[in-house]
Amino acid sequence: MEHFTVIDLGSNAVRMTITRINDDGSYQTVKQIKRYIRLSEGMDANQELQPEAIDRTLAALADFKDIYETYKNVHVKAVATAATRKATNRNEFLACIQEKLGIRLDVISGLMEAKYDYLAVANTLPVKNYVMLDTGGGSTEIVLCQNGVVSHRASLPIGSVGISHQFHLEDEVSPTDIFDAMSYVNDALGGVWWLKEGLNLPIIAVGGSNRTLAKIYKRSAQIENLNDIHGYRMSRSMVNHIFSQIIGKNQEQRKEVPGLSKVRADIIVGGLIPIILILRFLDSDRVVFSASALRDGVLKEHLNATVEQVQIKE
């Protein structure tokens, strides 16, 4: 028996999942935990991770270590994504974590992040042709899947934290700022040359901002099991309706929106812009939400379950 532990260090949050893998190959999730650390906060033009953000991250990882060390036969796989990827002081940051905590962080590329996202989603939803969108804090991954096979994937250096900060969307939103932000994201999508091959396909939505969208709607519709969003569907018109409500509120008002975590109130506008625009860009009429994420893809790779079940065309 093994306790496989995946740590995902993102731009906005750090997450850990501990999975018990039994000798017969079966497995169960035994622990999931998340801490909001805003690693990318204050990076700005110099692209340096700031001391306060580093301290928050170290504290969260120390807590995670205390937790996973209570289990036997632990195997830790820790990955870092967008914020660490682009940080000019990332080597010092990684060395600090290694020295103080003994945790080795692997900085994965945006394309590898997209691959893990796909592996997490593959065979868990009843669709074979789709465009997957993972809106993170510091990057957005897009995957085009045709007949169950990945034909294209991309990673864009735009995310909920960066968009919200760059275009002043944290609090009250002005028409000029929302226009500028949407133009910026639309240009980024337009640079993905193959994206139009996904015309009219459903969008598989992954990531914290997109999961929040599903929770807001479920709460407004008084649907039970708020956190059970895997396979949940929303129409494009309903997505647009919720977005229009969100941008009409300031940060304090957003904190009172049912289904919206208070710690996301300042980044939710920037976090929803990619899904709003990709629906329009591809003239897609629906979103299907996935509760699976990068950590699940890392687990699948570890289990070697992907060898026969999924295909990625390089």
What does this molecule look like?
With 314 residues, this protein is of the alpha/beta class. The chain folds into 2 domains: 107 residues, Nucleotidyltransferase, domain 5 (2-Layer Sandwich); 179 residues, Exopolyphosphatase. Domain 2 (Nucleotidyltransferase, domain 5, 2-Layer Sandwich), CATH 3.30.420. 40% of the residues lie in helices and 23% in strands. The protein has 12 helices and 12 strands. The strands form 2 sheets. It has a 7-stranded mixed beta sheet, sandwiched between helices. It has a 5-stranded mixed beta sheet with strand order 3-2-1-4-5, sandwiched between helices. A hairpin with a 3-residue loop joins strand 1 and strand 2. Helix 5 packs across helix 10 and helix 7 packs across helix 10. About 2% of the residues have low confidence.
CA radius of gyration is 19 Å
Beta-strand content: 15-25%
The separation of the N and C termini measures: 34 Å
- By DSSP, the count of extended strands is 12
Share in helix = 40-55%
CATH T-level fold name of the largest domain: Nucleotidyltransferase, domain 5
Q: Can you tell me the overall shape? A: globular
Q: Tell me about the biggest sheet?
A: 7 strands, mixed
CATH architecture of the largest domain: 2-Layer Sandwich
Spatially, the strands of the biggest sheet line up as: 10-11-9-6-7-8-12
- The low-confidence parts are 305-311
CATH class of the largest domain equals Alpha Beta
What letter string, H or E per element, gives the SSE order? EEEHEHHEHEEEHHEHEHHHEHHE
Pairing-aware structural class of the strands and helices? alpha/beta
Taken together, the total number of domains comes to 2
CATH superfamily of the largest domain: Exopolyphosphatase. Domain 2
- The residue-averaged pLDDT reads 93
- The number of helical segments is 12
